[in-house]
Amino acid sequence: MKKRFIQWMFMPFRFKFLRHEYEHQAINVLDVGCGNHSPSLTKRYFPAWNYSGLDREEYIIDAGDKKAMTKYYALDLSTDELASIPEHYYDVVIMAHVLEHLRNGLVVIRLLTQKIKPGGKFYIEFPSERSLTLPSVYGTLNFCDDRTHVRVYGIAEIANVLLENNFKILRAGTRRDKIMILLLPLKLLLKFILRKKIRGSDLWDVTGFASYVYAEKCEIFS
């Protein structure tokens, strides 16, 4: 019980929207931008999920991550079509911190809406407009800290694409993980004691670095 509570406390923000509805279900999930050991991390919290990953390259992916994936799509969203991904198939599509690397992000969102079955969910997270005014910190706090960031997106334009494609917006706004904000002083103290660098991502929740949109695909009635 104690282990599960600690695990829940450190659960990534994107998972907290999905936990109550899908924690023990064998649903089909597409993770768009599946680097940084995302397959293994996802299966740690949701072992029953049928996890598919999509990325243009295997970025910080090891043998354990490959084993965790049911399917891997090696696609460049800037140039490749998404025809190889089945239509109306996925219960959940997650797209966290991918949009800002794309000039055609709204087109990609529209294409991905066709991959979600009616009743399925779409979670999108991306740097907020506020990130343009934040100070530079190691590991990205200001939008321009990462030179691969090419475009700032807003909540309204993303929500409009989803609305146009038969989605209902369930929640949207600034990412604020209250647990992480409360634990931040302890985290910073530990990093100081261990002489580790403070990363920009340590400060995302308290500074409002990221925005999100969480939406559900409406049922189609004949």
Please explain how this structure is put together.
The protein is α/β, with parallel strands linked by helices. It has one domain (2-217): Vaccinia Virus protein VP39 (Rossmann fold), CATH 3.40.50. The protein is 31% helix and 23% strand. The protein is built from 9 helices and 7 strands. It has helices spanning 2-9, 13-16, 19-22, 38-45, 63-68, 105-113, 155-164, 178-193, 204-207; strands at residues 28-32, 50-55, 71-74, 90-96, 116-127, 167-174, 210-217. The chain has a 7-stranded mixed β-sheet with strand order 3-2-1-4-5-7-6, with helices on both faces. Helix 6 links the parallel strand 4 and strand 5. Helix 6 packs parallel to helix 7 (155-164).
The count of helical stretches stands at 9
DSSP strand content: 15-25%
Q: Describe the biggest sheet? A: 7 strands, mixed
Number of strands: 7
- First-to-last CA distance: 46 Å
Name the helix and strand elements from N-terminus to C-terminus, one letter apiece.
Answer: HHHEHEHEEHEHEHHE
**Over all CA atoms, what is the radius of gyration?**
17 Å
CATH topology: Rossmann fold
Tell me which CATH architecture applies here. Answer: 3-Layer(aba) Sandwich
- With strands numbered from the N-terminus, the spatial order across the biggest sheet is 3-2-1-4-5-7-6
CATH superfamily: Vaccinia Virus protein VP39
Mean pLDDT: 94
Query: SS-based structural class?
Result: alpha/beta
From the spread of the alpha carbons, the general shape counts as globular
Whole-number tally of structural domains: 1
As a percent range, the share of helical residues equals 25-40%
- Ranges where pLDDT stays below 50 over 5 or more residues in a row are none
**Level-1 CATH class name:** Alpha Beta
